[in-house]
From TrEMBL:
Provenance organism: Zea mays
Lineage: Eukaryota, Viridiplantae, Streptophyta, Embryophyta, Tracheophyta
Protein name per the record: Nucleolar protein 56
Matching PANTHER family: NUCLEOLAR PROTEIN 5 NUCLEOLAR PROTEIN NOP5 NOP58 (PTHR10894), NUCLEOLAR PROTEIN 56 (PTHR10894:SF0)
Biased composition (Basic and acidic residues): 524-554
Family assignment from sequence similarity: Belongs to the NOP5/NOP56 family.
GO cellular component: box C/D methylation guide snoRNP complex; small-subunit processome
């Protein structure tokens, strides 16, 4: 059976045919001895085809696909074009040797090409990698080195890229610093207590808090200077007026020794340093809370910020924690006890860092192991949601916390908890509703913004119109004069119409003396004229009667009316 070798270089894909394996030997040791000799190795392996990458971006994409065990379309077309095609219904009489077994399995699943990845194939590919520039004449050593260097930088840069808002390394550093600050503040505050107790030993019994003790040591400095006037200031520091009075009375009857001013100044400065450290510790804790809500909101809402950060730091990263099984997560932080128990064949530990959670403290002694196992299960679910989900939400963590509370009630009272499937469905529904509400709010905001813009434009246009109307006073006066003239013309027209009507009546009285036939004809004509066919025609006739077309026609009508009167 023929053997082909697939070699992925920084400049492109290479396909080699191992046709003379019998000359160098079919064992791994024989191949190792012949790899260094190019003349001997060149007789066993020859180049069949080479497909260079089109650009650096293409090379990076191909490299990422190979590292993830995926066959790209370019690699598939390259193999199908250059490998011999088997006959239909028959198996291939060759096999393809690859370095990555995942790539080989994917190639065989998709294309049906038989692939193998064993020690013999890897030794052959090691020889191909060593003499690759000799097989391709046009490729120089410097070009290959440049391609390897550029691809290596781009590949590592792409792997290092991350989301700035989800940097779990910052959480790891913050929780380490928080632990060291707790140790340092405790040791420094004990040193302040011991140092100032030589001067004012009674203050230790009155004030138990380290931060308040350092604050009081800075304020008091010298106990002999304390008086009743300092009680309000002491009450502000301590928060209790009775304690302030007690401190003043104890200072008056104190058994401590007097210190020199230089010693008191040093004590005061050291107390200020302790106060600064404790304040910085508070700020660091707030920073840790915000980062944990950004990186792992579900894990934070389930188990708390500090315990969740300790789990992430112990696992190394959030992705490592998500890959851990629930049983591994349960005993994180108790590795020494686990290996001791395995060595001595004793009982293995039930919990590690999870023990600091409030749920295990609330459980009874016989149910602590059960509670730790159940809580580790929910923590693994929450860490996987935080690691692989694109949208950051704490809905799932809240629902998982409710499940843990229900399990506690089940252990104590026997109340049956909800199933995990129902809880996850409810979480998904609430998440969808929240997204819909956010979309509606955004749409309302957009519409309100558009309306406000329209109102602004309308007010601007109205203001422009008012500005245009202001200088038109002269035009308004001219318009008023025009209306007065029109009214006068209408009055003249009405008077003329009344005169015409009087003339028409006079004509009617004169024509009554004529024969009855003429009367009938004229009456018909008058009725036809009096009754127009439509309302519009009637209006036209009235206007014609009221307004003579010319001044000459009006004079003629007047003359006729005078003659008729005569």
């Amino acid at each position: 059976m023929a053997l082909y070798l697939l070699f992925e270089s920084a400049s492109g894909y290479g396909l080699f045919h191992a046709y003379g394996i019998d000359e160098i030997g079919q064992s791994v040791e024989a191949v190792r001895s012949s790899v260094l000799d190019l003349d001997r190795f060149g007789k066993a392996v020859k180049l069949t085809a080479f497909n260079p990458f089109s650009s650096a971006v293409d090379a990076l994409n191909q490299c990422n696909a190979i590292s993830e065990g995926i066959m790209t379309d370019e690699l598939r077309s390259f193999l199908e074009l250059n490998l011999p095609k088997p006959k239909e219904g028959k198996k291939a009489k060759y096999s393809l040797g690859v370095v990555e077994p995942k790539v080989g399995s994917h190639i065989s699943e998709v294309t049906g090409i038989p692939c193998q990845s064993n020690e013999f194939v890897q030794e052959l590919l090691r020889g191909v990698r060593l003499h690759f520039d000799r097989f391709i004449n046009e490729l120089k050593d410097s070009d290959l080195e440049k391609a390897q260097l550029g691809l290596g930088h781009s590949y590592s840069r792409a792997k290092v890229k991350f989301n700035v808002n989800r940097v779990d390394n910052m959480v790891i550093q913050a929780i380490f610093l928080l632990d060291t600050l707790d140790k340092d503040i405790n040791s420094f505050s004990m040193r302040v207590r011991e140092w100032f107790s030589w001067h004012f030993p009674e203050l230790v019994k009155i004030v138990n808090d380290n931060y308040l003790y350092a604050k009081l040591a800075k304020f008091i400095v010298n106990k002999s200077d304390l008086a009743e006037k300092d009680i309000p200031a002491l009450a502000d520091i301590v928060g209790d007026e009775d304690k302030a009075k007690e401190i003043v009375e104890a200072a008056k009857a104190s058994m401590g020794q007097d210190l020199s001013p230089v010693d008191l100044i040093n004590v005061q400065q050291f107390a200020q340093r302790v106060m600064n450290l404790s304040e910085y510790r508070k700020n660091l804790y707030e920073y840790l809370v915000t980062k944990m809500n950004d990186i792992a909101p579900n894990l934070t809402s389930l188990i708390g910020e500090v315990v969740g950060a300790r789990l992430i730091s112990h696992a190394g990263s959030l992705s490592n924690l998500a890959k851990c099984a629930a049983s591994t997560l349960q005993i994180l932080g108790a590795e020494k006890a686990l290996f001791r128990a395995l060595k001595t064949r004793g009982n293995t530990p039930k919990y590690g860092l999870i023990f600091h959670s409030s749920f295990i403290g609330r459980a009874s002694t016989k149910n602590k192991g059960r509670m730790a196992r159940y809580l580790a299960n929910k923590c693994s679910i929450a860490s996987r949601i935080d690691c692989y989900s694109e949208a950051s939400t704490s809905v799932f963590g809240q629902k998982l916390r409710e499940q843990v509370e229900e399990r506690l009630e089940f252990y104590d009272k026997g109340v049956a908890p909800r199933k995990n499937l129902d809880v996850m469905k409810a979480a998904i529904d609430s998440m969808v509703n929240d997204t819909l509400m956010d979309d509606d709010d955004n749409e309302k905001a957009d519409t309100s913004a558009k309306k406000s813009k329209k109102k602004k434009t309308k007010t601007e246009t109205d203001g422009d119109a008012m500005d245009v109307d202001k200088p038109s006073n002269v035009a308004d006066g001219e318009a008023e004069l025009g209306t007065e003239k029109k009214k006068k013309k209408k009055k003249h027209k009405l008077e003329e119409a009344q005169e015409e009507n009087g003339a028409a009546h006079a004509n009617g009285d004169a024509e009554e003396t004529q024969t009855p036939k003429k009367k009938k004809k004229k009456s018909r004509e008058i009725s036809e004229e009096a009754e127009p066919k439509t309302a519009t025609e009637g209006k036209k006739k009235k206007n014609e009667e009221a307004e003579p077309k010319t001044a000459t026609e009006g004079k003629k009508k007047k003359k006729k009316a005078v003659k008729a009167d005569e």
